[in-house]
Description:
Two copies of one chain form a homodimer. The first copy, chain A, is of the alpha/beta class. Chain A folds into two domains: about 5-35 and about 75-110 and about 260-330, FAD/NAD(P)-binding domain (3-Layer(bba) Sandwich), CATH 3.50.50.60; about 115-255 and about 340-395, FAD/NAD(P)-binding domain. The first copy, chain A, is about 35% helix and about 25% strand. Chain A has helices spanning about 15-25, 45-50, 60-65, 115-120, 125-145, 160-180, 185-190, 205-220, 310-330, 365-375, 380-395, and strands at about 5-10, 30-35, 40, 60, 70-75, 80, 85-90, 95, 100-105, 105-110, 120, 155-160, 190-195, 225, 230-235, 235-240, 245, 250-255, 255-260, 270, 275, 280-285, 285-290, 345-350, 350-355, 360. In chain A, the strands form eight sheets. The first copy, chain A, has a six-stranded mixed β-sheet with strand order 5-2-1-9-23-22. A five-stranded parallel β-sheet of chain A has the order 11-18-12-13-14. In chain A, strand 25 and strand 26 form a beta hairpin. At the A-B interface, strand 4, strand 5, helix 5 and helix 11 of A face strand 4, strand 5, helix 5 and helix 11 of B.
Amino acid sequence: MKRHKPRVVILGGGFGGLATAKALGDNADITVVDRHNYQTFLPLLYQVSTAGLAADHVAYPIRGALRSINGKFRMGSPISVDHKNKTVKLDSSEVLPFDHLVIAVGSVTADFGTPGVNEFALGMKSVHEALTIRAEVMRRFEDLCRFEDDTKLSIVVVGGGPTGVEMAGALAELVRGPLMNDQKHAALHIEVSLIEAGPRLLPSFSPKLSEKTKSALEKLGVKVLVNHAVESVMRDEIALKSGEKIPAEITIWAAGVKGEPVISKLSLPLDGNRLSVYPTLAVTNYPNIWGVGDICGSKASDGRFLPMVAPVAMQQGKFVAAQILRREKGEELKDFKYRDKGSMATIGRHKAVVEVKNIRFSGYPAWATWLFLHLFYLMGGRNRIGTIVDWCWNYFTFDRGNRHIMDSV
Amino acid sequence: MKRHKPRVVILGGGFGGLATAKALGDNADITVVDRHNYQTFLPLLYQVSTAGLAADHVAYPIRGALRSINGKFRMGSPISVDHKNKTVKLDSSEVLPFDHLVIAVGSVTADFGTPGVNEFALGMKSVHEALTIRAEVMRRFEDLCRFEDDTKLSIVVVGGGPTGVEMAGALAELVRGPLMNDQKHAALHIEVSLIEAGPRLLPSFSPKLSEKTKSALEKLGVKVLVNHAVESVMRDEIALKSGEKIPAEITIWAAGVKGEPVISKLSLPLDGNRLSVYPTLAVTNYPNIWGVGDICGSKASDGRFLPMVAPVAMQQGKFVAAQILRREKGEELKDFKYRDKGSMATIGRHKAVVEVKNIRFSGYPAWATWLFLHLFYLMGGRNRIGTIVDWCWNYFTFDRGNRHIMDSV
């Protein structure tokens, strides 16, 4: 007798959800649910914000990714799970039955309760937000071009992790390169700052690379402020906990992320704002529900949450696919172990930092490594080719062709 | 004594405005005004709507185009002209003095007073509108995928000119190719129709090519209705003047354009909704104000308005630049004559029609000609390369990589 394929519903079509789907392949009857019909390549969003990449190149149609495995797709968000009948209800009212439910809904910007972030700061978690930043920067630049006086524009990036560092570096290069060629007087009146609450940038890297990152950013003209915690964000300035105020016509919030709040609708045990899971990645007390990626509260051997980054999500996705097949075959489950392949952040042309266990390097070799790995992980041949084209163009012409303000009619 | 360069303000950064600026080059002190900071390559917008091209590839930063001629740019719209003091006031309150004013503000969708067009039909005149069509088509497709029943989706393109023909053909190919691969049942329930009020498609072409176009579209699965005039557009149907109603969950309005209404603020003589001009393209009674492109009411020798197409705008732009320099030198002005280099429309893969005076051809050679000319006229090397990449990808994979619904957060 032919065994029935398990029905697997995967909530979230990001790195984690799609890794799960692909690893399950033809061994399951798969439905992926996402509120967008495309996967967003989040690690390159900052390049959309800074006019380096076309928006369509950091997105990939989920249906395209699922074609080879005959997976189904539903555009929508979960609104509840019926744990007795093993179904998940979507906002379209559709009810999807499942044998296994994989939760890979990702994360959202965390404001840590800081007043004004929601109202006045720009986030960096979606294509829409990236285009908003691009439009806002370019529109303020156009405003500056009208006055040939001393009016200044302060762009402040909050958060000294890889996202904030990459954003600040790319902004500084946009200002010093293309905008300087567009209108010198205006470009000279734009200041890019990076604020970090802790004592150094890239706290997850070695102090030496932090120092290199800081000086590389400063060489690009970025004003780097460490030990500066933000008290509140206002329309055109930021109040620091020290009482000081700094001008900020544009505030970009890259200070952190937290589990996607939709999780609260699913009646599942939480650990902070992430799913409480066993080391097997099964949700505590729910043997057929699994956590993957940013939303999954799995911990390293030191008891700390794993970082909310794409490599963790991809490894967990693949792992959970294997766990589901193990459970279906009655085999024993394994415990998830994250193999940290290192971290990297790019700062600008020929400037990046890479740290792989005890190997650290920076400058040109780190930048080349970053380029290669990002192209390797970029889904879809068309996006890869399109990205190479945009990057080659930017590299050789020192220009950025996507300086369009497209957020309005 | 060195002669002072004339100050030329150009309203509109489209084909006409930028052609004027480039032809004036270093001989004038140029300021281009546009409400967008980019030029839109309108002839390819329908490919953005149908997921064939990335939105950023049909846009080109105006400042980039003006760099080589040291032209200035102001983002904004004109709100009035002070004819006594020769200044134009922008919505930013900035006042620009001019020796010559070139009006090249283009056109907008014309609804010919048809009720419901504004509320329920989608236009095809901006990147924003193109992305709205793309999102709407893809979202309705996602809706269809949820029901595996007989629910149908009718997409109706109104207007059988080149724009409507190209749109209908590209939609049919999107549905029959990528969407069929995404979800066959849903794709089979999508119907694309093209409605034309007159007796044949492409009325400006020869009847033979009209017939070829109709049969090529029908082969692609498009339902072509000629002699069907639209009475009104409703939320999910279209009422025809015959009293018949046809279902239309999505109505795309490609029935015509008219002069951009901003022109009414400039206190200038109009001819219908276009600028009244002399054969010299100087505005009637305003020797230092010039009309270029869609807004310019210049007429062919048969007394009819010239067509509102890019080649007219580009020829007029170049011509007006020369006229301005003639006037500055005290030389006699010339009369504008449009050299019609022919018309073309693409229907789909290997299918197009080309008509150059008495030479007419269709099929593969016409399609290759169309491709070549559009790449040739596409501004900016990066857009040209990016477009080649997107097109090659679509051509060889029969896929369309930009099926993203990006109009929402």
